Amino acid sequence: MTALLWFRRDLRVNDNRALYNAVQAGGGVVAVAFVTPQQWQKQNEASAKISFWLAGLEELASRLAGLGIALHLEEVADNAAIPGALSRVSHQHACSALYFNREYGYYEQQRDESVQKTMQAQKIRIFAFDDRLLIEPGRLLTGSGGYYTVFTPFKKSWLGLLPRVDVDPLPVPDSVAASLSPRKLPLDEISHKLGLPDWCRDMWPAGELAAQKRLADFVRHGLEKYHESRDLPAVDGTSCLSPWLACGALSPRQCLAAVRRENKKWPAEGTGAETWLNELIWRDFYAHVVVGFPRVSRAQPFQKKTTALKWRYDDHDLQAWQTGQTGYPIVDAAMRQLNQTGWMHNRLRMVAAMFLSKHLLIDWRLGEKYFMQHLLDGDLAANNGGWQWSASTGTDAVPYFRIFNPFSQSQRFDANGSFIRRYCPELEPVSAAALHDPVKLASEIAKKKISYPAPVVDHKVARERALAAFKNL
Ligand SMILES: Cc1cc2nc3c(=O)[nH]c(=O)nc-3n(C[C@H](O)[C@H](O)[C@H](O)COP(=O)(O)OP(=O)(O)OC[C@H]3O[C@@H](n4cnc5c(N)ncnc54)[C@H](O)[C@@H]3O)c2cc1C
């Protein structure tokens, strides 16, 4: 018996349930992954993220070859072509079973349903595994049997269930055959054809070995102080593991195990470790929301009444936000960080998202799309959750009247302005006090003849406009 193993967003040999079980089945294993350019475009996948995924695939192919498993890379236009391609590959290699790890997004679920039908029609057995989250959707439901919509009770229930959930990482499986010489995947040709960037290669080394190293470094040097430094964008206060978690070069079970290696108990509340693991619970929460309320992945707000909100569609303001030219230094530095690195600090994602959806009153879906088009860690559930939180349209969202003042945010979280100056070098000569005060900023800019835009909108005016729009619902 030969098993066909389909890699998607699970690019690792360690702690990979589909891989482990395919090998355990005892026959041969052939692996496949798909390049789907039109689907990526439809889902607004960032080209830097695709480049990172392909580079991760290269390492994966070589590690699989060491286990005697050949990885085949197939190019098809989109998800609709995958069932046919899978059936062709399984026929070529005389496979009798298909193994994969589940994905929970709307497009992915649709794709997997049609794969299931096609394969079953050919008598190919399907083995699907929950591998992507710590606790999979469906296992945590409210008393009335629905999905949670508020984080705190979700977390309570999550923590209650955790001791009964298998979260121990699996080892790398044994080899199925003698090592193969690694196949050269046509990655350069694909990158060239799709016009993928390579600037991210050095900044974000792909693959599970790089992920393991970063995790170990973070646990050793960053975890203890995480709760104190996680909101300060100028310091390396967070793990920056999101790109690897998003493409599955790292699993959340590996993260949990790394934290609990010394201590099997849940860390004490308020510590760096507990605060960090809390973020992994948020990751599960938003993935559950996407499954429980599929409308959120079809560009609809979770809170139905906000569908009526009169968003602005102003190209000039949208472009100022996208390019980091709003005249609000912290927002501009945040957007330039995204554009230059493919990643943005969490505090700034909230500030930038709230600025677009409240100050500019621009439809949050345009911001969600722009983030997806630029983030290496772009993930439908977390991105949609973060955007709907910031726009006050989502589950457990920020109340609409709590509108961050970007100047107060930068005063609190970038007091000496070093993050702002890193990404807005034209503001180097401006004093820290002026970076957090629009009146002083305007005066220093004029005095020092600095080329920096005036605020695209006045904070008070924008705030009143947003409050009025939400009150009218
Ligand atoms: C508007 C907006 C958009 C976002 N878009 C994404 C996205 O596309 N992909 C993404 O992975 N995260 C997204 N987030 C969540 C969060 O900003 C990032 O996960 C985090 O900044 C990644 O940095 P890190 O790895 O250093 O996180 P750490 O602080 O080290 O946290 C560890 C891990 O926990 C998870 N995590 C942390 N915060 C959250 C959160 N609020 N929601 C869900 N998971 C979380 C991530 O996987 C992260 O890598 C978004 C947040 C907002 C407000």
Q: Mean of residue pLDDT?
A: 96
**What count of helical segments does DSSP give?**
23
Strand content: 5-15%
The domain count comes to: 3
Q: What is the CATH superfamily label of the largest domain?
A: DNA Cyclobutane Dipyrimidine Photolyase, subunit A, domain 3
The H/E string reads EHEHHEHEHEHHHHHHHHHHHHHHHHHH
* Structural category: alpha/beta
Using the coordinates above, name the CATH class of the largest domain.
Answer: Mainly Alpha
| Residues in helix, % | 40-55%
Under CATH, the topology of the largest domain is which?
A: DNA Cyclobutane Dipyrimidine Photolyase, subunit A, domain 3
Strands ordered across the widest β-sheet: 3-2-1-4-5
Low-confidence stretches: none
Q: Tell me the overall shape.
A: globular
Note down, in words, how this protein is organized.
By secondary structure, the chain is α/β, with parallel strands linked by helices. The protein folds into 3 domains: 2-130, Rossmann fold; 133-168 and 208-292, Serine Threonine Protein Phosphatase 5, Tetratricopeptide repeat (Alpha Horseshoe), CATH 1.25.40; 304-471, DNA Cyclobutane Dipyrimidine Photolyase, subunit A, domain 3. The chain has 23 helices and 5 strands. It has a 5-stranded parallel sheet with strand order 3-2-1-4-5, with helices on both faces. Strand 4 (95-101), helix 5 (106-121) and strand 5 form a beta-alpha-beta unit.
